């Protein structure tokens, strides 16, 4: 951390800051220039920062040189993490596809979809049993009943299963049924939920918040990891911008940015990002080429009657075609699929 | 709702949609133009919408004519709501100031701040006992201990008290201590929390999400209201944009927009919006002039040592000066303060 | 400027940078910490910056401590600038209203509007003769013919006149007819146009770009001023965000931010910002209260037949009502109107 | 176009609108529902729209069904356009790489870079002779001298040449030296410049504005095309968002969106979009996979001393490596390179 002093700051101001730093167990490295004085600080700055140095007399600005996340930070864990689900691995040289409907609607729908996504090559079945919806009057999910259908589909197909949670209670409910718990964009900074997920040993897929910076996203991952659960998978699903021709703006730059800052695997969800079926395939290929560790694709046996988020769902045939098309891209990237 | 058909849609396509509408108990009003056919729909469209009409063959687009929120909607409740806290009212021709520190830090701090904000003219004391923080390593709040200090300050001064909740457990914990529960920006779409708050009869201040549209914000209010608690106060606290000279971009247009769409009172928080002390007073005055029902202002007896969010805190003297300055603006607006 | 070195930077790296700085006539102030080394730099850094120090071996980041604009900077010109139009002043303790139609449509329209806005209290008549429009098939303005109508309205009423320019040729064309030339949001970084405006001695109203930061806006003003024309007036007209209930998001924080960084007067245009007639009056009051030096308001004798931008236009009666309503706010701010 | 009437609109209101439509030579198709009445309109609506139907009594909203651009619209030109530069084609099944420095700095730099990018496989040399820069005190380009260096490099290597223009004068100046003129992001809505470019017969590369929607971008292309020059190439270069880990947010969704709406070729500039050298290669591959018709890559013989925009420049060796890496992706897409 660097404290830049104002050009009109006094000796008194500097002494005051040095005193504060020392009280917090930190050492100050002062550098006086002609016009500006700079104080460099090394060590654990959390206590000091809570005194709000920005407000101390004479301070122009505070510059942070290192990130606030540690367990998620590549600096302290240079090798990529691989999340181990037994027969399926996420990260490293594996490539994974999670596919299924946005919402679990019926037993038949889940069995049918599971078989379809398996035949395309997906390793993981997705499906929402607890649905966070903008309006309280929209369909909110089948809850435990939906989980049971997913578990049955898992048994029948050998696919792994992922489902979203929206509360601590839901985490307990899904625990027996799923291989990965998903925390959605709206809950990315629901810190109580992150901490509860961190207390389990179930892998967590953490979607990026609708307007979260990559730094906030990695800090959210840190909440989970700091509770003991280091099995975190990140999922880019588009950010909110002024552009209206897609539902969100898929930020594929996030893939190389994450790869340079963190060891966690990152997968991409082009279905939710664009909200338009025709854009899913080109952006799925682009995600592979950008270095993503996997994809999340919405598939519904009959998109036109899906209970939520239909316009971007692929039908089973489209999904198989997509998998076939992206396979050579995955191989070019040196990944197994 | 209006369904616009593609120019190349067929009779078959139109018949299919009419059939679907009728299955959902709706009537279709068809209008055939030279190039486009339009189907108008009246009635409760929720079930039909779950069939994803956007995806039905021949459909160009769906146009919604009415909002999805009802209880929060001005159309069905033309008079402004007044939230009644006994000696203090929020909304109507009252003007209210909520002031205090971002985080409760100590008993002394709360008592001292309470007396300071009372002397300035505030009617409500704010203070955070449960703090949602970006990094898990930042100060997370004093929890119940903090609530007790707030309650003591309330007893001493007669001020009403507001504090943030971040979980269902926290709602139970604060229930005995506060007059208003606050749901913060990060939890605006934590629907489980909204529903839990809706099951109490304590007034709820709902902050706008960092990148929430006004429509999503009113739908979040609807979640609380649809559970039975109609005492909702909205709070504009800035939205996330590309501009970096303020922490967020205070969206004062939200005040007249809310006034035209909803009967709920709306207050403005210029402290968190800007993150810069010098900008608080001009934007507080602007909020009054835009028609806000109140202000939330961060006040700390000693901003330079505040444990969180110091740079925008006013000290007691600045706060009293601000209140004095805005009083004539409040009076010009025909409000009591 | 501060150069922060990477924790693994070498002595060689530091020497290389010092050498580069000295070649550019700058002095380096080195401060070595345990983990990081910082190099402080004072002096004119333009030549050095063109060598891209961010890329020099061992560099972590470059921190700028001072702004790149000088003539627009309050540091070097602490007193507020007053733009003198003879009988009308902009800035200081004056308050100014510019009103009129978005586009000049006819002689009658301009005369009628001029009389209407004069009777409301406006000092300046606005009207577009050269219209930058998103589609090439929209009405593009009456050009010189429109300017003549404006000049005639000026002669009849004594109002000052402002009109937009979109090319160097237009600057020459308007020179004889207007008191202020306006550079619109789309041209805020049309640097050739800025320089051409800077070569005249006509006051320039510079609208903020649709997604310009305040820093870029002040640098755009600097382009005009650095050519010799220091009579620049800034105009906040809303920025582009994801929110759709208003056309743009009016950033009223820009008013106190500009006041703290620059001596230039700043006026606010709530008509273009919101695009909704009903929101103009509350936000006009808010702009006054935030400390703006004036307002730009769209007025049309018959908004329902205006050739462009009708939905936010006030009719003459509404405008007179607005002026009456905001007058006490202007007086509260200690301004003359 | 569809006009949706308010639920409380009167017969009088509807008659008024029909009258207005007929005066503008349009036919109204009225559809009365229980609660809402809808008026469908077919024909050239420009004159009618200038009367601002949004403001006519009884109108709830106006819904546009078709786009305002025509020449750029895929509907009226279903086959992809191929821009023919003689030995080089842009669009169709060709893939093109434009590479070179941001700014032309010297004869040696251009010759050296031209040979380097040719050896990597680029077909087009880029270089800025007229530089639009945020601050008037930054390097503004070598102008005609720079163009001469580019032309010499072209003669030596057979590469085609592209350079940016910022004024009508610059268009005249570059005409003899370049094969493509570039209009930059800041000038995307400098309509006078677009029209001037449209009056030449030189192909134009139109960069997307920093916060332009895809619709505005296509309308800007329409400005060029409607003057007679249909040789327009679009270039996605990142949009402005709140995210700060990259300079802009590269919107790769724009590639499939453009492909679905327009026949114009679209290329992607990952260098300017990210501003970070390490992110260029992964996003270049992603752009290929998303379906782009080409890439614009910043290459400098010595990035550390580049006069502008160094941090994202590749050196010749990195560039050759990138070309080698992306070649199989280009082939997978069925493109010639």
How does this structure look, described?
The structure is a homotetramer of 337-residue chains. In chain A, helix 3 (107-120) runs parallel beside helix 4. Chain A folds into 2 domains: 2-63, 2-Layer Sandwich (Alpha-Beta Plaits), CATH 3.30.70.1140; 74-332, Aldolase class I (TIM Barrel, Alpha-Beta Barrel). Chain A is an alpha/beta fold. Chain A has an 8-stranded parallel beta barrel with strand order 7-8-9-10-11-12-13-14, surrounded by 7 helices. Chain A has a 4-stranded antiparallel sheet with strand order 2-3-1-4, with helices on one face. The first copy, chain A, has a two-stranded antiparallel ribbon with strand order 5-6. Chain A has helices at residues 11-23, 46-49, 107-120, 144-157, 168-174, 191-198, 214-225, 254-261, 270-274, 277-290, 316-332; strands at 2-5, 27-32, 37-42, 59-63, 83-84, 89-90, 96-100, 124-126, 160-165, 180-183, 204-207, 232-236, 266-268, 294-298. The radius of gyration of chain A is 23 Å and the shape is elongated. The first copy, chain A, contains 11 helices and 14 strands. The two termini of chain A are 43 Å apart. The longest helix of chain A has 17 residues, at 316-332. Chains in contact: A-B, A-C, A-D, B-C, B-D, C-D. Chain B binds chain C through residues 211, 213-215, 239, 241-246, 249-253, 255-257, 259-261, 273-274, 278-279, 282-283, 285-291, 328-329, 332, and chain C through 211, 213-215, 239, 241-246, 249-253, 255-257, 259-261, 273-274, 278-279, 282-283, 285-291, 328-329, 332.
